[in-house]
């Protein structure tokens, strides 16, 4: 009987350690290769597969050029090939209003009337300055001008082009809400 009690205690201790490890570290993050359709995953460079942080930087052939107008400034950007980005493309041109600057000081958001599809995309992302994202819990388009940590519910749609990125980041950072954002195909 004593051996059974000790065995049960050991099993409970191992289960508790496993649970605590999972709760402290969180669930496993999806890799870039899991997010990109299988037909293109083999074409990605090793550098691209190492980080979800810059998952918006997929192959040039998979990116769709767009224009983002804020005030009189027009910036070039590209959207990726995700189902979420394709849903945005289907609605272009669109005019959105940035109503608030959110509780996160490194992003500006514009509420969307309807949720966008996210099936087959990672559960979250770690956006970089210059990324364009979608916040699924409260359907919103997000323009990142500063660094934001990984959050579940963030979906990277694309990013400002390298030639416009730093100017766009500074310009977005300087905007006061409310302001209009016009997104159209290039």
UniProtKB/TrEMBL annotation:
InterPro entries, per database record: Cyclophilin-like (IPR041183), Cyclophilin-like_dom_sf (IPR029000)
UniProt cross-references to Pfam families, sorted A to Z: Cyclophil_like2
Domain Cyclophilin-like: 68-175
Protein name: Cyclophilin-like domain-containing protein
Lineage: Bacteria, Bacillati, Bacillota, Bacilli, Lactobacillales
């Amino acid at each position: 009987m004593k051996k059974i009690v000790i065995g049960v205690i050991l099993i409970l201790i191992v289960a508790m350690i496993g649970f605590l490890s999972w709760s402290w570290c969180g669930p496993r993050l999806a890799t870039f290769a899991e997010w990109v359709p299988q037909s293109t995953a083999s074409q990605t460079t090793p550098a691209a597969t190492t980080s979800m942080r810059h998952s918006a930087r997929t192959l040039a052939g998979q990116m769709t050029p767009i224009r983002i107008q804020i005030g009189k400034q027009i910036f070039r950007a590209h959207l990726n090939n995700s189902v979420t980005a394709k849903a945005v493309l289907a609605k272009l041109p669109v005019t959105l209003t940035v109503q608030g600057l959110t509780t996160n000081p490194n992003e500006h958001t514009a509420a969307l009337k309807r949720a966008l599809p996210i099936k087959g995309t990672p559960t979250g992302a770690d956006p970089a300055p210059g990324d364009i994202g979608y916040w699924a819990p409260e359907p919103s388009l997000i323009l990142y001008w500063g660094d934001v940590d990984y959050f579940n519910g963030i979906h990277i749609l694309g990013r400002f082009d390298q030639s416009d990125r730093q100017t766009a980041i500074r310009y977005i950072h300087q905007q006061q809400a409310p302001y209009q954002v016009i997104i159209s195909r290039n």
